[in-house]
Amino acid sequence: MSVISMQFGYPFRLYQIPFEMPDCDGESETRTLHLVGDFSAPAEFFVTLGVFSFLYAMAALVLYLRFHSLYGENKKLPFVDFCVTVCFAFFWLVAAAAWGKGLSDVKAATRPSSLIAAMSVCQGQEVVCNAGATPAMGLANISVLFGFINFLLWAGNCWFVFKETTWHAQAAPR
């Protein structure tokens, strides 16, 4: 009886995760195998966007609170702020969708039943292989939810930033 366990996590370069598989032909020899897949791109994009969103939000907060007169006098600054906010809203939608797809691919690649089906040692006549614990992905699922919530927040914020531009002032009745 052998137990095979694998530890994986961010950035989800699964092809770098080795695990030992017993070799039933030998006495106590094992073969080192690796998981399949590289899902680091959507995960890293999601995290990078989160970091840049935080930095931009802090910079905008300083601009709004400390340099509000500059923000009101300069007509181009609200346009730039609006364009950046629209871009962040769009990128949050893309990042949440990409990370959601990447997470579903990670789940498929680490499902114990599919790993057992791929192991040659489990294909023998007298060998019984049982799936162990399914990886806990609850926090990863919540991160996808927070990505879509971030999209809603940034998209909603577009209205408030738009109201500061001269486009809104031109459309308002006088």
Automatic annotation (TrEMBL):
GO CC entries: synaptic vesicle membrane
Entry-linked InterPro entries: Marvel (IPR008253), Synaptophysin/porin (IPR001285)
Task: Please provide the record's keywords in A-Z order.
Answer: Glycoprotein, Membrane, Transmembrane, Transmembrane helix
Q: Which residue range or ranges hold the MARVEL domain?
A: 1-166
As for subcellular location, the record says: Membrane
**What residue intervals traverse the membrane?**
45-67, 79-99, 142-162
The primary location reported for this protein is membrane
Q: Which family does it belong to?
A: Belongs to the synaptophysin/synaptobrevin family.
UniProt-recorded name of the protein: SYPL2 protein
